[in-house]
Amino acid sequence: MKLFSFWRSLATFRVRIALNLKGIAPDEVVDVNLMKGQQRAPEFRAVNPMMALPALVENDGTVLYESLAIIEYLDEVHPIPPLLPREPRGRARVRGLAQIVACDAHPLVVPRVRDYLEREFKLDEPKRTAWCRHWSAQALHALEAHLSSEKETGRFCHGNAVSIADICLASHAVGAKFFAVDLAPFPTVSRIADTCLAIDAFARAHPLRQPGAPASV
Ligand SMILES: N[C@@H](CCC(=O)N[C@@H](CS)C(=O)NCC(=O)O)C(=O)O
Question: Which numbered atom of ligand 1 lies nearest the CA of 10?
């Protein structure tokens, strides 16, 4: 198994957490430096035409892409520990929370979007950062509203077992800190993120613990 990865990639962070929770270590981790634009190089484009991390190549050569699809695949092939609750309503809630992060918020702050804002609309760095903070905070407000009011919330996003929602929540909290978003107004999100990041599988997957990462952002 081969994982295409970069320390700063939040989507790859999500997949690294799932791999760690499942006790799977890829045979090879290939670094694709997003800061140098290596995701657009022909070699990686051939792996993932979306030119985005992560990509996971299975032993038979099957290429998997999109973090949520990869995580659900891992959960289906390695069902213990489960990353989705059993009952349909719980599964829908966990997927909904996860998608607030992975489908609504995160795509707005990725390098290709920030680059486009700079290149096409001449937005300077402070404005691009304000953009990222805005969309990051929007998701935090939505997550906090759900998690603080819904009876299903427990030690983790859904009860007392880690799920895909926690994987996404942790990645979002870490990303928000990268953009210097204040997490104080989001106490339930902060509590669950802190609980997750204290777990070894999350901590080892943290962007700043990957090869090539700086000491801080
Ligand atoms: N929806 C995708 C997001 C993939 C994505 O945008 N990844 C970022 C890094 S977290 C990336 O590689 N971006 C490259 C770029 O924007 O040029 C997923 O969840 O896997």
Answer: 10
Angle of CA points 23, 5, 164, to nearest 5°: 50
- Residue 34 CB–ligand 1 contact under 6 Å: yes
CA distance 211 to 205: 11
> Distance between CA atoms of 119 and 19, rounded to whole angstroms?
36
Which residue in 11, 23, 5 sits closest to 174, CA to CA? Answer: 11
Identify which of 6, 51, 106, 171 to mutate to test ligand 1's pocket (most ligand atoms within 8 A of the CB): 106
pLDDT of residue 59: 94
Listing DSSP states for 7-60 in one string gives TT-HHHHHHHHHHHHTT---SEEEE--GGGTGGGSHHHHHH-TT--S-EEE-TT
Which residue in 142, 75, 130, 158 sits closest to 103, CA to CA? 142
Taking CA atoms, 99 is separated from 3, 121, 160, 184, 210, in Å, by 22, 28, 20, 23, 25
- Residue 36, phi then psi, degrees to nearest 5: -100, 5
Element (H, E) at 5: strand 2-5
pLDDT (tens digit, 9 = 90+) per residue, 107-155? 999 999 999 999 999 999 999 999 999 999 999 999 999 999 999 999 9
Q: Quote the tokens at residue 191.
A: 């509590």
